[in-house]
Design goal:
Layout (H helix, E strand, L loop, with lengths): L1 H25 L14 E4 L26 E8 L2 E6 L2 E6 L3 E4 L7 E4 L32 E8 L2 E6 L2 E6 L3 E4 L1
Antiparallel strand pairs: 1-2, 1-5, 2-3, 3-4, 6-7, 6-10, 7-8, 8-9
Length: about 180
């Protein structure tokens, strides 16, 4: 039991040391209030959920927790965190403990960060991807910027040519 406690303390120290650089790196993906439709909100799905001052475990948290089922206005997203209105404050909640409702509408753009990225017809690997008539994959090149019109789990919904497709978030990033 004592080894587990030592491990947790060591892990927390590492998170705190590395957290600042991680939080700074993630800040570029934050979607602002202007980029998320005002009617969007999140519903808290857990109990004792900590509302943090920033998007990471290295940030402190408010002394009170919202009750399970509480709806909070969505202000933006930053990686695995939702930015929400918490009373008169801005707070961050880990996505695992909140459910998105009133799907956000984005006016953002995404930049393709991978090579040979496939655009899917739906948000998952089980959906077909965009192809030429001969069956070879067709899609954007690394560095291309596409309009982001939504998101579904780990996928951005983007406009490409005359269609709307999905790109896995691992291969794209939000840009201004």
């Amino acid at each position: 039991m004592q080894n587990n406690s030592l491990f947790r303390k060591t892990l927390m120290c590492l998170v705190m040391l590395l957290g600042m650089s991680v939080a700074t790196a993630n800040a570029s993906t934050l979607l602002s209030v202007d980029e998320v439709q005002q009617g969007s909100y999140v519903t808290i799905t857990g109990t004792g959920v900590r509302m943090r001052y920033g998007p990471g475990l290295n940030y402190g948290y408010y002394g009170t927790s919202p009750k399970k089922g509480t709806r909070l206005q969505l202000l933006g997203e930053d990686g695995d965190w939702y930015q929400v209105r918490y009373g008169q404050n801005v707070a961050y909640v880990f996505k695992q403990y909140a459910k998105l409702s009133g799907a956000p509408v984005y006016t953002s753009r995404v930049q393709i960060t991978g090579v040979g990225v496939r655009l899917r017809m739906g948000p998952g690997l089980n959906y077909n991807y965009l192809k030429w008539k001969d069956g070879t994959a067709r899609g954007p090149k690394k560095g291309d910027i596409l309009e982001c019109v939504g998101e579904s789990g780990d996928w951005y919904k983007v406009r490409y040519g005359n269609g709307t497709y999905y790109v896995f978030k691992q291969y794209a990033k939000i840009v201004r």
